[in-house]
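Here is one chain, start to finish.
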Amino acid sequence: MPKARINGIELYYEAYGSGTPLVFSHEFGGDHRSWDPQVKFFARRFRVITYNARGYPPSEVPTDPNLYSQDHAVADLLGLLDHLSIERAHLAGLSMGGGVVLNFGVAHPDRARSLIVAGAGTGSQDPESFRKQCTDNALRMETDWGSAAAAFPRNPNRLRFMKKDPKGWQEHADGFAAHSPIGSALTMRGVQAARPSLFSLEDRLKTLTVPTLILVGDEDTGCIQPAVFLKRCIAEAGWAVFPRSGHLINLEEPALFNDLVSGFLAAVDAGRWT
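Its structure:
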């Protein structure tokens, strides 16, 4: 079970294949296993790395609330690249992971070959309401994990996945229920509730020159306008909308997701995206 001590925290990671590094960062409700359809596809041609964020066993679960933030998550990703001696990598993330990858690209553009930002920006249009929702969810996770764990996978933006792929959705729900209540609550409060709106990054995004692919489901209502905003701000960005799809597009439509990302990576590596 490979672990790396990064920023004082042990992070679990997995690596498969060889070639150009491709790192995946998971969403709040998932973990490294959420990327299995992508690992099986891309490890044939890339060195694929997945990892669990702090607070997600078998990564360490700090109990200090001050050790959870989006800045910590960006620093952990940087530390993982350093630990693996990766100078530059393609970076992909979904939802919370998409926010991490995007902010990493803004902070460390020299370390990113490209960015794949999927389903990012929930709460950006109404940050105050989103923060309250996250705070309420965190309290529920701390006090009644069984109820919180049963409810979260049934959020409206995850129901399309349940309808399309009941077995896959059940695996997702069971995986979330096995997460750490403490780690989940602290991540919800420190990373999700406290992160800035994507719209606040406008000036910095307009200076970003890293090739970027933006992906969103057409029924992921909280992420559609943020996706349009990212496309408008990032000069080297392209975007794609997944029809009849919610939040978990890499699991809902793995073949389409892999095909779009594969074409994007090929264009970037051939110097043709720009």
